[in-house]
């Protein structure tokens, strides 16, 4: 049995022929950045230690060629846990009457950014439920205040589905990036995860609007979400291949007790890490976080994520008093520490595996080899010596 080097978890290679085919597919993916739907499904279905190690090694090599040993940090400010939606997997869904609701004030949000700036953060992520209180006027005011104080910083928004005009106003006010997980690229799966008043089409409309307006756009999905099949994950990978997001947030599904999925099994660190590697091979320069959810289900989850090809971590800058209340899933980590402790903890964790948290906006680096390959469909340039 091969012991996996990167995830610390074991996954036996059973059939020699299959494992050879998988490593061939990984090789092909690293060169062409594209596979068929059937090939992606095969990669997932038949994964084993040998394949997982091969994917991680290539992913890390490619990422190091573009980003070196730098890990970008984003200061997460959870501005509100009030939401008009009822996504079936989410702990702050409107039907959860046990949720202790809060909103940060404008001044509290700006104070979080001030603390973050002094700790070396140059990106602030304003994340919240779809809370109508945060009108375009209010968000534009907050964005403008942070930008005028810290023009060297990037602002990322993660406040859900809005209209084109709303996204445009927020962008014009200074927002640089927008995170909106697509959740699943399978229409039927989307329906099973969401209430009837939400739609796959509107989610895709939002992502396309954000791209058209000029944001750096992030999509993503949960690994091991209820009803998810390997075919559905293959569709997610095809979607990522086509959409070419600037950021891609994937983390394991972790159930929340007060949701319809409270008794469902959680996703695994093993598959999440493998998919991080595959996504790095699809899109070499993508900004890929090792998520808090990954750290929640495995004590070294974020380190494993980085060693599988991720290059971003997102320490919490929210006031400690509200952190526990922003509970998207059960047992979320990092809810008791001060912002400085969170940053120091992650810095120590990253150093322990040979990486360095940097003071930098952390924008996506366009990779000439990849861009040439995907736009001209020509020969890939083996710039990093990883292929
Ligand atoms: S996932 Fe987002 S939109 Fe859905 S209920 Fe949770 S906070 Fe609201």
Describe the overall structure:
This protein is of the alpha/beta class and 387 residues long. It has one domain (65-370): TIM Barrel, CATH 3.20.20. 44% of the residues lie in helices and 11% in strands. It contains 15 helices and 9 strands. Strands 2-3-4-5-6-7 form a 6-stranded parallel β-sheet. It has a 3-stranded parallel β-sheet with strand order 8-1-9. α6 packs parallel to α8 (200-213). The longest helix is centred in the first third of the chain and has 19 residues, at 49-67. It starts with 15 loop residues before the first helix and ends in an 11-residue tail after the last helix. Iron/sulfur cluster (SF4) binds at residues 83, 85, 87, 90, 92-93, 129-130, 160.
Strand content: 5-15%
Small-molecule binders here are: iron/sulfur cluster
- Quickly give the CATH architecture: Alpha-Beta Barrel
Side by side, the strands of the main sheet go 2-3-4-5-6-7
| Classification by helices and strands | alpha/beta
- Count up the helices: 15
The main β sheet shows up as: 6 strands, parallel
Low-confidence stretches: 1-10, 375-381
Mean pLDDT: 92
């Amino acid at each position: 049995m091969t012991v996996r080097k990167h995830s610390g978890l074991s996954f036996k290679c059973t059939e020699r022929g299959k494992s050879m085919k998988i490593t061939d597919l990984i090789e092909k993916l690293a060169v062409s950045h594209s596979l068929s739907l059937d090939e992606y499904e095969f990669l997932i279905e038949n994964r084993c230690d040998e394949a997982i190690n091969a994917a991680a090694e290539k992913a890390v090599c490619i990422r190091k060629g573009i980003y070196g040993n730098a890990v970008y940090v984003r200061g997460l400010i959870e501005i509100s846990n009030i939401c008009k939606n009822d996504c079936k997997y989410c702990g702050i869904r409107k039907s959860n009457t046990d949720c202790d609701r809060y909103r940060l004030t404008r001044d509290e949000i700006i104070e979080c950014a001030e603390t973050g700036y002094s700790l070396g953060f140059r990106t602030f992520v304003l994340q919240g439920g779809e809370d109508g209180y945060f009108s375009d006027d209010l968000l534009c005011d907050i964005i403008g205040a942070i930008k005028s104080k810290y023009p060297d910083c990037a602002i990322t928004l993660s406040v859900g589905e809005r209209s084109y005009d709303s996204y445009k106003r927020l962008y014009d006010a200074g927002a640089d990036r927008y995170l909106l997980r697509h959740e699943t690229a399978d229409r039927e799966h989307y329906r099973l995860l969401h209430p009837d008043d939400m739609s796959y089409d509107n989610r895709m409309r939002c992502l396309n609007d954000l791209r058209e307006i000029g944001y750096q756009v992030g999509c993503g999905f949960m690994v091991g979400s209820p009803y998810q099949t390997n075919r559905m994950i293959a569709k997610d990978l095809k979607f990522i291949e086509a959409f070419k997001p600037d950021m891609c947030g994937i983390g394991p599904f972790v159930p929340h007790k007060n949701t319809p999925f409270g008794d469902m099994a959680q996703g695994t660190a093993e598959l999440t890490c493998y998919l991080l590697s595959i996504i790095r091979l699809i899109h070499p320069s993508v900004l890929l976080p090792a998520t808090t959810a990954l750290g929640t289900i495995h004590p070294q989850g974020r380190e494993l994520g980085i060693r599988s090809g991720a290059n971003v971590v997102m320490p919490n800058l929210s006031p400690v008093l509200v952190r526990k209340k922003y509970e998207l899933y059960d047992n979320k980590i990092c809810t008791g520490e001060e912002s400085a402790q969170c940053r120091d903890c992650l810095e120590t964790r990253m150093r322990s595996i040979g990486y360095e948290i940097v003071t930098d906006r952390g924008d996506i680096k366009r990779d000439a080899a990849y861009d040439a390959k995907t736009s001209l469909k020509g020969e890939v340039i083996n710039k990093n010596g990883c292929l």
